[in-house]
Amino acid sequence: MSRRILTFLVAGLLAVNATAQVRPPDLTDQRSAILEAFRLADQGQLSLTDLARVEDHPLLPWVEVTQLRRKLATTPTREVRAALARHEGLAAGDWLRTTWLHHLAANKRWSDFLADYQPSDSLDLRCAHLAARLATGATDAAWIADGKALWLTAESLPSACDTPFSSLLALGQIDKDLRWQRIELALLAGQTGLARFLARDLPAAEAARAKDYADFIETPHARAAQWPKDARSRAVAAEGLARLARTSPDAAEVQLATLDKALDLGETQRGKVLYQVALWTVASYLPGARERLAAVPASAYDERLHEWRVREALNRRDDAGALDALSRMPAAQRNDPRWQYFEARVRERTGQKEAARALYAKAAATATFHGFLAADRLGQAYALCPLEPSDDAALRRRVANHPGLVRALELHTIDRRLPAIREWAALLRELDDDERKVAIEFARDANWYDRAVFTIGDAPEDLRYYSLRFPLHHENVLRREARRHGVDPAWVAAQTRAESAFMPRARSHANAMGLMQLLPSTAERTARRLGLAWTGAASLYNPETNMILGIAHLRHELDEHAGIAYQAIAAYNAGPAPVQRWNRDRPGFDPDLWIETVTYKETREYIARVLAFSVIYDWRLDGTAVPVSERMLGRTVAPAARRSFTCPLSPGPDTSP
Q1: For 155-172, what is the mean pLDDT?
Q2: Average pLDDT of the chain?
Q3: What is the rounded end-to-end Cα distance, in angstroms, of the chain?
Q4: In this structure, are residues 449 and 501 in contact, taking their beta carbons and an 8 Å threshold?
Q5: Are 368 and 655 within 8 A, CB to CB?
Q6: I want to staple 245 with a disulfide (CB 3.0 to 4.6 A). Which of 39, 160, 252, 569 is the partner?
Q7: Which residues are within 8 A (CB) of 339 and not within 5 positions of it... i.e. 6 or more apart?
């Protein structure tokens, strides 16, 4: 090796090491002091002496506003305003201002409110702003315009709006037409109680009509045939029947036939109802789905209904019908890897092998579930074109030392979740795309894994930052338990990523907890089956406990479904009963077609997501992948049969998992 090449390599290694050493400041030594300051601030007992102990800490603004928020009733206005001025433009200052404005509004301190108000999206504060301007005599044309704009809202508004709206009414600014506009907005949003309330001040006959409209939205009735033949009646009739179709497509279809003639419904109104009739028929593959799909006017079709038209044909094993449905899709939708793949599958089944191969090749150029399936059909490597955050040392130092990042990461570390999220959101508004990726990398390194999931961006290139979007933590436990139970470790990692994004304290609305989102009841049964002590639901926030029980539960689901992984994944998400029903309704379906014709959107996408994620985790764990077509059957393959990865020279649009 020449000295020149050696010098170049050494220089390169030094540059990499220098880049790797760029990290946000380590605040570990100051953590006990800041935790104590927050403890005192939470109790409103932080003294000036206590504050002085953390005066150089980046989280000083948050400590200060935490105390102030608890003591607004007894804190002089000048002190609050001094704090707002000190923290102007900071997330902590915005947090304080919001609480301060609510305090001022609750105490009707309108002059102070106006002095400290800043434009807000909060309906509470917008209503209070109207009230403050009214109370101080600022009822000019701008006030009237702002009041009318806020009035035209489909939902109930805070009580702070009551007095301003009463004044608008007294000034003659809320006339009958404006009242009807809001009633109609409320009706079309399903806010029937609000519509009835608003109708009370209409003339008696019109109030009765508004009430009849509200009744129809809730339960369509025959009286609608006697309504005036005007745009409002038609809009309400279409909305009510569309809502009825979600629970009874048959009843909606019958009533549509009557009201179509009685009210002279147009294509838009008929299409709205027929769309829902078709959707809620086909979503359960009920009899007549094909005919109802055909009855929907083309103008009412959207991507969702186009997809269901394809699925309905696939469900009936109607290849010609599936190709016809695919041909009706908009070009952009038809060129999505999912539909390229299924068009290829149907064409392959009908003997159009060359056309099928061309479509498979297009889909296989994308790092998606259907792209990986297409690559399997062709027997080729998986497309993966990973990107990494910038290694520019100056950029990384700039981000690492950004005060907003430092505050956000430390708030996350000390488990101040909502302030951390506020600080993170404020930070992202100041960063460009490259800086954002580096910030997410620093967040990942601080075990804040879901920042990549929620804030990576929506551009196709953003999805290629796989090392950010697919964190890998607790790998030793993951591999150990996967090996113990004979479960694919990449699948376990994929399931964990899909469930919690590797956030140990994740909790769902259904009370599923921890990394693998276990219900306490499921976890307790699993612990007993394993002969382990059950120490309560809180133990599920322990990553090792959660993985031990979660992987054992995954093994149980796999055993319950004869080792068929895609059905075990479905059961993990939806429960065993729907899986039994789908097997009964579509016996002998190929796995890819079974997945695509699952009736639950969440489960259908969940299965595909977990299987696609498993490929990415194979790439991270081992550098090669079990073919998806084998993995979804629960099969293992010899090392030589694993898929390698390649980056196509001209990749298609990346709609990565």
Answers
A1: 95
A2: 94
A3: 43
A4: yes
A5: yes
A6: 252
A7: 310, 326, 329, 333
pLDDT for 9 beyond 60: no
Residue type (1 letter), 208: A
Mean pLDDT of 521-546: 96
The answer to whether the beta carbons of residues 126 and 157 sit under 8 Å apart is no
- Report the distance separating Cα 108 and Cα 465, nearest Å: 51
Residue 561 DSSP code: T
| Of the candidates 385, 489, 399, the residue with the CA atom closest to the CA atom of residue 437 | 399
CA distance 581 to 284: 11
| pLDDT over 90 percentage in the chain | 94
pLDDT at residue 18 is higher than 90 = no
Q: Which residues pair with 382 in a beta bridge?
A: 645
Question: 646 vs 143, 262, 372, CA distance in Å?
Answer: 61, 62, 12
Cα-Cα-Cα-Cα dihedral sign, residues 586, 590, 593, 598: positive
Q: Residue 117 — very low, low, confident or very high, per pLDDT cuts 50/70/90?
A: very high
Distance (Å, rounded) from C-alpha 227 to C-alpha 220? Answer: 13
Q: What is the pLDDT of residue 649?
A: 53
pLDDT band at residue 651 under the 50/70/90 scheme: very low
Query: Which pLDDT belongs to residue 656?
Result: 56
Measured CA to CA, the distance from residue 17 to residue 191 in angstroms comes to: 60
What is the structure's pLDDT at 648?
Answer: 87
What one-letter code names the amino acid at 465? Y
| Cα dist from 579 to 151, 469, 561, 623, 628, whole Å | 48, 30, 9, 33, 20
- Cβ atoms within 10 A of the Cβ of 470, count? 21
Q: Please give the helix or strand (H or E) that residue 645 lies within, else none.
A: strand 645-646
Cα–Cα distance for residue pair 613/553, rounded to 1 Å: 19
pLDDT of residue 16: 45
Alpha helical stretches, state H, 152-302: 162-170, 176-188, 192-199, 204-218, 231-245, 249-263, 267-282, 289-295
3-state helix, strand, coil in the chain (%, to 5): 70, 0, 30
Closest CA to 481 of 498, 500, 495, 467: 495
Structure tokens at 342: 């299924």
pLDDT at 590: 96
Task: Give the span between the Cα atoms of 217 and 242, in whole angstroms.
Answer: 9
Is the pLDDT reported for residue 101 higher than 70? yes
What is this structure's pTM? 0.91
